[in-house]
Amino acid sequence: MTAPVRVLVCDDQALIRTGFATIIDAQPDLEVVGECGDGRTAVDLARRLGPDIVVMDVRMPVLDGIEATRLLAGAGVPDPVKVLVVTTFNLDEYVYEALRAGASGFLLKDAPPAQLLHGIRTVASGAALLAPEVTRQLVGRYAARIRPAGDPADVALTRRELEVLRLIADGLSNSEIAATLVISQETVKTYVSRILTKLDLRDRVQAVVYAYRNGLVT
Q1: Model pTM greater than 0.85?
Q2: What are the HTH luxR-type domain coordinates in residue numbering (predicted)?
Q3: Nearest 5°: phi and psi at 179?
Q4: Backbone phi, then psi, for 41, in 5-degree steps?
Q5: DSSP one-letter code for 2
Q6: Helices 39-49, 65-73: inter-axial angle, 10-degree rounding
């Protein structure tokens, strides 16, 4: 038997926190190992309990979810914890900063339970959760105010890798990229792996942020 995915739930609204925990604990492959209502406690509990993933709210007392995410999964953090950020629609201005802070994905709070469970399993598996239907809406709107980090001509990627990176930033899945470029999904996976390795990125979410910061997507 495979050990269940260990989840820490952090939300300052007790009703939502309890609801998430109840939904998660009802799954045989998932286990809630802790709950808390502020970012500082989330950081402390994550470091003490070592969960596989933290389901993190954004707006919380003491320490907000973005800073808590940065402390748990940001650049230079030893043994980073996977973080799935949940946000309400009217807090979407925080999503870009949450992704930059190291989150592996995000969901809207009004997502159905099945999407929450899918998101937890996806992020826990090492993949990123950046839903295609909200990629442009939540990340793309910041393209105009994100300063390019450098000249795109200096990006150490091949022409095909740049094509794949742009399609990732557009929110396309591996199967959709394969269909667009008329190549196999295995080939797409190889390109994605090369892109992440060459650019020293952790996952597809960071690839999207990189693409926007470098002016590769308009």
Answers
A1: no
A2: 150-215
A3: -65, -40
A4: -65, -35
A5: P
A6: 30
Report whether 78 contacts 72 (CB < 8 A).
no
Coil, strand or helix: which one is 35? strand
The residue assigned the tokens 């090492």 is: 126
- Long-range CB pairs of 67-71 (<8 Å, 24+ gap) are 67/39, 67/101, 68/10, 68/39, 68/40, 68/42, 68/43, 69/98, 69/101, 69/102, 69/103, 70/101, 70/102, 71/43
Neighbour order of strands in the sheet with 53-57? 30-36, 5-10, 53-57, 82-87, 105-108
User: Which residue is it, tokens 């495979």?
Assistant: 2
CA pair distance 16, 4, nearest whole angstrom: 22
Per-residue pLDDT at 144 exceeds 70: no
Q: What is the pLDDT of residues 48-103, one digit of tens each?
A: 999 999 999 988 888 998 899 999 988 788 888 999 988 775 555 666 777 778 88
Nearest alpha-carbon partner for 124 in 75, 23, 55: 55
Non-local (6+) Cβ contacts of 157 within 8 A are 165, 195, 198, 199
Longest dimension (CA), the chain: 50
- The predicted pLDDT at position 29 comes to 94
